[in-house]
Design brief:
With about 250 residues, the protein is an alpha/beta fold. The chain has a single domain, classed as TIM Barrel. The protein is built from seven helices and nine strands, in the order βββαβαββααβαβαβα. The structure holds iron/sulfur cluster. Iron/sulfur cluster binds next to loops.
Length: about 250
């Protein structure tokens, strides 16, 4: 693991708490570690509002219980697993991520952080930075949950932060960059995003068809072709195939 500088926030008291939407054991359904049994911690709260967000209970309408970092680490230890996935919402908006990842690191746990990559958290411990930069298809224009349009404006302003993406990639020993795609029109934007991001290899790039059902092969043939010609990965959602779109999986 890359030893990043210790941040002063890592000296927060042991009773530091975080807003937890859910924690559970399942298999990783997405990305390079697909199939690996993992402990998932979903923090509630996000600085974005994706139109197609599949965890609105951690973004549009956050539901959470405040839980101490110590208690969460003990829960992880009791699973006997080696892999932890810190997700959201947007986990990087919480400074408590520093003591949490520091303790998991000391326990010898492999840490994946799932983030949109718009916020940095210097000193955070992470083995696999799982970045999901948001394309224009995510902006909630005309969404009834945003009648004033303020979130659409905020989301559009925040969704791509290249300084942050590059800092997060540079600070982690491994990375994957997932794009949720809705049609071939997304490809030029993906190419333009990648042109401004450093430190990736073609097989770090994952195209994931939008949706919370198993896709029709004909509808995603263009995704397969786009990956085949560029050396990128097709991003399946194994948890959807196995468990459907349900919480706790
Ligand atoms: S960044 Fe993730 S959690 Fe936040 S709104 Fe988008 S999909 Fe939902």
């Amino acid at each position: 693991m890359t030893a990043l500088p210790i941040h002063p926030d890592q000296r927060t008291p042991s009773d530091t708490s975080v807003p937890v939407s859910e924690s559970f054991v399942s298999i990783q359904g997405e990305g390079k570690l697909t199939g690996v049994p993992s402990w998932f911690l979903r923090l509630a709260g996000c600085n974005l509002r994706c139109r197609w967000c599949d965890t609105p209970y951690a973004s549009w309408e956050p539901e959470s219980v405040s839980r101490p970092v110590d208690e969460l680490c003990e829960e992880m230890r009791a699973t006997g697993l080696r892999h932890a996935v810190l997700t959201g919402g947007e986990p990087m908006i919480f400074p408590q991520l520093l003591p949490l990842t520091e303790r998991l690191h000391r326990m010898g746990v492999h840490i994946t952080i799932e983030t949109a990559g718009t916020v940095t958290r210097p000193g955070v411990r992470c083995h696999l930075m799982s970045l999901s930069p948001k394309l224009a298809n995510s902006t909630p224009v005309g969404d009834p949950r945003d009648p004033s349009g303020k979130w659409a404006e905020r989301h559009e302003h925040r969704r791509l932060n290249f300084a942050s993406l590059n800092e997060l990639i540079a600070g982690s020993p491994d990375r994957q960059i997932k794009f949720v795609v809705t049609g071939p029109d997304d490809l030029p934007e993906i190419e333009s995003v990648l042109a401004r991001v450093d430190g990736w290899k073609p097989d770090d790039i994952i195209l994931m068809p939008e949706g919370v059902t198993v896709p029709d092969p004909d509808e995603v043939a263009w995704v397969v072709e786009a990956c085949r010609t560029r050396g990128w990965r097709y991003g399946d959602r194994l948890h959807i195939r196995l468990f459907g779109d349900t919480k706790g999986t």
